[in-house]
């Protein structure tokens, strides 16, 4: 992990408040693993003071891309940045997804901007010739991202929207349940990133069907390296710091990717 000053190559508008920023960063291109993230300084001023975390979305030749949703002051500032400007970031941070061995099948579940790190994972799994089924869920058509990119990775893609404006109407977890209830061969692993409610539901389904599952959690962060204790997540006892019934781990240092069985879901 190191601090990098990287030139912005592009900062494209994907519509509906989503953008993709590409930066020249050979160190990150060489060292980042799917599921890891970077902490980005939004401006040279003291406001916003804290860096903002973003999962590595894609590794390009000599750089990386981040996919982000504009939700507040920090992301608004990032959205205004132009190619040629310099970004101050730290990374790669955190743990990555543990890849399956051999050439098994995997199910990848992405909710909303959770597609960001899942695409990087999909690209790496494609290189390992892992058969993938990607389930993308969103509120409506405009929240479904990267469908074509996943197809380019050779993945079978299923889309769900809550309002039925694209794909199946309902929640992405409905499709996951149906897939696993099928009598066909079980996938070797499920990988998921998205809102906490979705991750909890995915973890429950994985447990019911006894399929190994890794989830990438989101928590507000400050230092990003396990020092400020600002991003705790409850894990089952025996998995982290002391407590009763549960203990704490830090999402930034011990995660953001966890085995779903480790999390003390509430
Ligand atoms: C490990 C990690 C990886 C992430 N990767 C991505 C990514 O690839 N793409 C992406 O769009 N976003 C990602 N996020 C979320 C992103 O960091 C926040 O959206 C961002 O920090 C918001 O900054 P802001 O200043 O624009 O918003 P703020 O003004 O700080 O907050 C605006 C709103 O967003 C909520 N919020 C802020 N931070 C988070 C957070 N970490 N998790 C959930 N809600 C938050 C706040 O509660 C508030 O409602 C990631 C978060 C983590 C922890
Ligand atoms: S953000 Fe400081 S410990 Fe995680």
Give a quick account of the main beta sheet: strands, pairing sense, barrel closure: 7 strands, antiparallel
Overall mean pLDDT stands at: 93
Q: What distance lies between the first and last C-alpha atoms, to the nearest angstrom?
A: 32 Å
Tell me the radius of gyration: 18 Å
CATH topology of the largest domain: Rossmann fold
CATH class descriptor name of the largest domain: Alpha Beta
CATH architecture of the largest domain: 3-Layer(aba) Sandwich
Main sheet: which strands, in order across?
4-3-7-1-2-6-5
Uncertain residue ranges: none
Heteromolecules bound: flavin-adenine dinucleotide, FE2/S2 (inorganic) cluster
Domain unit count = 3
- What percentage of the residues does DSSP assign to strands (E)? 25-35%
The H-and-E topology, N to C, reads as EEHEEEEHEEHEHEEHEHEEEHE
Helical coverage, percent range: 10-25%
What's the quick description here?
The protein has helices spanning about 25-30, 75-80, 115-125, 145-150, 170-180, 195-210, 250-255; strands spanning about 1-15, 20-25, 35-40, 50-55, 60, 65-70, 85-95, 105-110, 130-140, 155-160, 170, 190-195, 215, 230-235, 245-250, 255-260. It is of the alpha/beta class and about 270 residues long.
């Amino acid at each position: 992990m190191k601090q990098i000053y990287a030139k912005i190559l592009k900062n494209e508008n994907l519509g509906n408040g989503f953008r993709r920023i590409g930066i020249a960063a050979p160190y990150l291109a060489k060292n980042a693993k799917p599921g890891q993230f970077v902490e980005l300084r939004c401006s040279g001023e003291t406001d916003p003071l804290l860096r903002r975390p973003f999962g590595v979305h894609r590794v390009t030749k000599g750089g990386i891309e981040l996919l982000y949703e504009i939700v507040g002051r920090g992301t608004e500032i990032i959205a205004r940045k132009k190619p040629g400007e310099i970004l101050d970031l730290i990374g790669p941070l955190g743990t990555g997804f543990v890849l399956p061995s051999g050439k098994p099948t995997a199910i990848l579940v992405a909710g909303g901007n959770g597609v960001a790190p899942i695409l990087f994972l999909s690209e790496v799994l494609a290189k390992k010739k892992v058969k993938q089924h990607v389930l993308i869920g969103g509120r409506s058509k405009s929240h479904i991202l990267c469908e074509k990119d996943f197809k380019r990775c050779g993945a079978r893609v299923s889309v769900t929207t809550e309002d039925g404006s694209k794909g199946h109407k309902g929640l992405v977890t409905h499709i996951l349940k149906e897939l696993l209830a099928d009598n066909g061969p079980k996938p070797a692993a499920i990988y998921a990133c998205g809102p906490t409610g979705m991750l909890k539901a995915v973890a429950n389904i994985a447990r019911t069907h006894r399929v190994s599952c890794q989830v990438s959690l989101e928590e507000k962060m400050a230092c990003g390296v396990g020092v400020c204790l600002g991003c705790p997540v409850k894990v089952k006892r025996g998995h982290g710091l002391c407590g009763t019934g549960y203990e704490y781990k830090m999402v930034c240092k011990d995660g953001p990717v966890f085995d779903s069985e480790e999390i003390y879901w509430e």
